[in-house]
């Protein structure tokens, strides 16, 4: 599912991730533990294709995150720590927008299933900015699992 070999990311003189290697197989759960600045989020951002590794390789479901980025991202659901969402959008509009981006616009059944699973029915008509932190996190999780990806990355 995830293969990482010698993954390194430098920002100038700072080495944020240094030669990281690991594999995650189907059904496994992996958690990164470490102090602030240890490279956990940087690693997830490289896997999600938001930043490019300085060296090394990573793949999601056999697709290299740099050379086959679109297929790697298609196999991935990602919830970053400060999940970006358009606060003025209603929850239902935001999730429909994400469904359209992910090619699921005609899959109302999938959207309904995710809304039910995360118990979002009561807030669908509310702007995201008006939600509690817990509901905002649920909306973020909903956008990550909407396409039913084989790999899910959750940052804090």
Structural summary, described in words:
Helix content is 31%, strand content 24%. The protein is built from five helices and six strands; from the N terminus they run E-E-H-E-E-H-E-H-H-H-E. The strands form two sheets. A four-stranded antiparallel sheet has the order 2-1-3-4. The protein has a two-stranded parallel ribbon with strand order 5-6. The longest helix is centred in the C-terminal third of the chain and has 13 residues, at 133-145. The chain starts with a strand and ends with a strand.
Lateral strand order in the biggest sheet: 2-1-3-4
Mean pLDDT: 94
What structural class is derived from the secondary structure elements? alpha+beta
Tell me the distance between the termini. 21 Å
Largest sheet: 4 strands, antiparallel
Give me the strand/helix succession: EEHEEHEHHHE
Shape: globular
Strand content: 15-25%
- Tally of helical runs: 5
How helix-rich are the residues, as a percent range?
25-40%
As residue ranges, the low-confidence spans are none
What Rg is obtained from the alpha carbons, in whole angstroms?
17 Å
The tally of strands reads 6
